[in-house]
């Protein structure tokens, strides 16, 4: 009988201690809410995203998350397309600066219509 009474008292003390800890007993107060897992975006904000940025990007994995191989393939394709786009832009800018150089004035008679200035 004494052992049963001891077990009941011990059980009440343990349940009471756990309840106080969970509900905010003691100096620390209630248990804080767990912050949700958030994706820390490593992509740069101060410059355009490049291929290396996309290739270094890793998304967090969850229990029922995404298929990593498929997402990595998609990111690889995105990185390749960004690199192709950047090369195309560079080629177009080079061609544009070459065309502008050809249209610049080439001599003192620039701006006169044919036949003007000869009297």
Can you walk through the features of this model?
It is a single chain. The chain is mostly helical. The protein has a domain at 40-102. Helix content is 54%, strand content 0%. The chain has 3 helices and no strands. The protein has helices at 2-23, 51-56, 68-103.
Number of strands: 0
Please give the radius of gyration in angstroms.
36 Å
Mass-distribution shape:
rod-shaped
Q: How helix-rich are the residues, as a percent range?
A: 40-55%
Report how far the terminal alpha carbons are from each other. Answer: 134 Å
Largest sheet: none
Q: Look at the helices and sheets and give the structural class.
A: mainly alpha
Could you list the spans in which at least 5 consecutive residues all have pLDDT below 50? none
Region (Disordered): 99-119
Protein name: DivIVA domain-containing protein
Briefly summarize what is shown:
With 119 residues, this protein is mostly helical. It is built from three helices and no strands. The radius of gyration is 36 Å and the shape is rod-shaped.
Which descriptors apply to this entry?
119 residues, mainly alpha, 3 helices, rod-shaped, DivIVA_domain, DivIVA domain-containing protein
Architecture blueprint of SSEs:
Elements: H1 2-23, H2 51-56, H3 68-103
Region (Disordered): 99-119
Organism: Streptomyces aureus
Protein name: DivIVA domain-containing protein
């Amino acid at each position: 009988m004494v052992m049963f009474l001891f077990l009941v008292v011990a059980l009440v003390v343990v349940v009471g201690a756990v309840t106080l800890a969970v509900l905010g007993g003691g100096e620390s107060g209630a248990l804080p809410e767990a912050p949700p897992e958030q994706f820390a975006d490593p992509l740069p904000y101060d410059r355009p995203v490049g291929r290396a940025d996309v290739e270094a990007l890793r998304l967090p994995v969850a229990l029922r998350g995404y298929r990593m191989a498929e997402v990595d393939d998609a990111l690889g394709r995105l990185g390749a397309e960004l690199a192709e786009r950047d090369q195309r832009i560079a080629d177009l800018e080079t061609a544009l600066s070459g065309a502008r150089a050809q249209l610049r004035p080439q001599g003192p008679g620039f701006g006169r219509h044919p036949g003007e200035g000869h009297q």
